[in-house]
Amino acid sequence: MTSALWNELLNNSPVFNERLELTLELTIDGTVIKVWGANVKNFEMELLSYGFNGCLDFWVNDDTDLDGDSDDLLKEPFQTQKLIEMKLEIQVVRPDRKDTERDPDPLAIRGYVIEKYLFEQANRRGSASPVAARRYGIKFCDAAQFFWGQHYPCELFTQKALKDVFDAHKCEKVSLVYNSESLNTQKPMIYVGLERDRTHPASFYDYFLWIIDTHNLLLRYDFKENKYYLDDQKPADGEPVAMDFEDAFDFIQRFPDVPRWKPRIHNSYTESPATQLVDNEQMVTPLTQDFLLRTSLAGQLDARVTLETARLKLPSPEVHLRCDRYPTRMIMPWDLIDVTSDPQWDLAAIAVPDIALQKKCRCHRLQILSRAHSQGQERREIGAMSEFAIQLQFAFEPIDETLGRLPRYVVPTYPSIVEGKIVSEIGADEEETYDIETDADTNLDSYKVKVPLWADQIVKAPFEPLRMSGHFYFPAYKNERVLLALDLYTARIVGFLDWRVEGRLPKEGQGNHLLTGKKPLSSTSISHVYEDDKPVFTIIRKHEKDHQTIQAKEGYLLIEVKEEK
Fold it and tell me: Taking the mean position of all CA atoms in its chain, how far away is CA 137?
């Protein structure tokens, strides 16, 4: 919650008038429809370091029913369910300035329409009221947000890197550039578990942001190239935009909340329990944020400590700039400004924050709200220019700020529960053997489990007693159906789903049965059943034709050794 005073300062920028030249194109089913910029009446946009959102509305005349020659080519395709791609360019027009001073690169965005609105205006003509013009409205956003925001896949990847996961889901409209080696590191498994029916479902866009956040990566959207860059750190330098002091109205400083907690990483592994702390000079005792691990590998604990140390960053003050004139050279997210390059800033009667005087600052947000002076439609839609009342505000951070910026996202919920089958390479196909694989690097033992749902890919699960006490050594056997819990990078067995061949007993005997061995003709069976409501205890050992039996029941004991025919 922000105080009313600061809301007023931060959200109510001064209103100024400018003549803008707009170019708007809508592409529907491969057909490009151009809208005269003069008919764009209102637009709002928030351009951010990781993408953008916006909305706008415009008139299109359609007076062919009134014997005119303005035909609305948008009326039919706009009302279909076809995908709409939009492109908008904005440039300020000042006749009093030389053309050489104009921005060579207008503000330009390319996105996709999320929602559509339509108002039709009719004119009375005799007994009829034909439509004379339509006012269209659209809400739009960047490609990743649009496509991945409605994408909820569940998919298993083995021996792949995060880069491969993103590439498999990016579609042709989302362009990614990978500048982090961590995204190229192959992992034994990666599970994307975005179940749509979760209480708080996370989309693939949420997953994408979550991976970036939890892996201490940086997301950078390039408005000119329409590409997303995944980096390890922010650009260290660049050519700053020489900002004109006449474009500025005032500066406001914002000091973000400082983390006052100390991260603690706990490892509950009983043979080597440990807690490691991450230093934070601004912490207040006893505030902590704890992370719980269970691993026998010291390297995994150290890696988590390194990650949380890197993620704990103290935020720098922000500088918010409210403008009362449209910049001749528009400042976009990731652009740098240098207010010290113009000596007239000293005469501008504007208090420039020390942080902006001491170092270059980087733009991370641009907000613009524009309302055309004339809201009605003209007889003919001609030209690209129109007069607007504009509010414009920028947010800057120091060039040495390392804190990444991401929108709010839903944290994906793990694990997902699926079925798998135990894999054993020991013995013949029909033998119900068990297998243990020992990792050469970590010395950890694991099962191999095949997941039929995803092309029989094989994952590894810890070779542990699971829900049984260590008194019992009953490893899962070949082809046994098991219940798998899949996390992002790991899998574990949480249940067993079937009985062994000849393991199940008829319900009439109300029996219990322990069946061991590789197969029915190479096994040992221990059973307890009821006959005539009296207990019968039997041990049978088989190896091909060689059978031994011990049976005890009411007034009867049998010990038998025989060879079956």
Answer: 28
Q: Strand order in 274-277's β-sheet?
A: 274-277, 262-267, 288-293
* Distance between CA atoms of residues 129 and 146, nearest Å: 38
Residue in 393, 252, 242, 397 with CA at minimum distance from that of residue 325: 393
The C-alpha atoms of residue 16 and residue 325 are separated, in whole angstroms, by: 6
pLDDT for 100: 47
Amino acid at 206: D
Q: Which residues pair with 53 in a beta bridge?
A: 46, 141
Contact 196, 221 (CB under 8 A): no
pLDDT of res. 95 = 63
Rounded to whole angstroms, the Cα distance separating 532 from 552 reads 14
Alpha-carbon span 325 to 334, nearest angstrom? 21
Residues 6+ apart with CB under 8 A from 166: 176, 183, 208
SS3 at position 538: strand
Sequence-separated (6 or more) residues with CB below 8 Å from residue 400: 316, 359
CA distance 385 to 370: 13
CA distance 60 to 334: 35
Residue with tokens 């490893």: 475
Q: Give 255-295 as a DSSP string.
A: -PPPP--EEEEEE--TTS-EEEE---TT--TT-EEEEEE--
In b/e form, how buried is each residue of 467-481, taking b as 16+ CB within 10 angstroms?
Answer: eeeeeeeebbbbebe
pLDDT of residue 1: 47
- Within 10 Å of residue 390's Cβ, how many Cβ atoms? 22
Residue 456: which region, alpha, beta or left (left: phi > 0; alpha: psi -120 to 50)? left
Q: How far apart are CA 267 and CA 283, in angstroms?
A: 22
Going through 520-555 in order, the beta strands assigned E by DSSP cover: 522-531, 534-543, 546-553
CA-nearest of 348, 334, 97, 102 to 224 is 334
* Residue ranges of the chain with per-residue pLDDT less than 50: 1, 99-100
> One-letter amino acid identity for 234?
K
Cβ–Cβ < 8 Å for 294, 304 = no
Place of tokens 């996105």: 111
CA torsion, points 342, 18, 9, 56, in degrees to nearest 10? Answer: -130
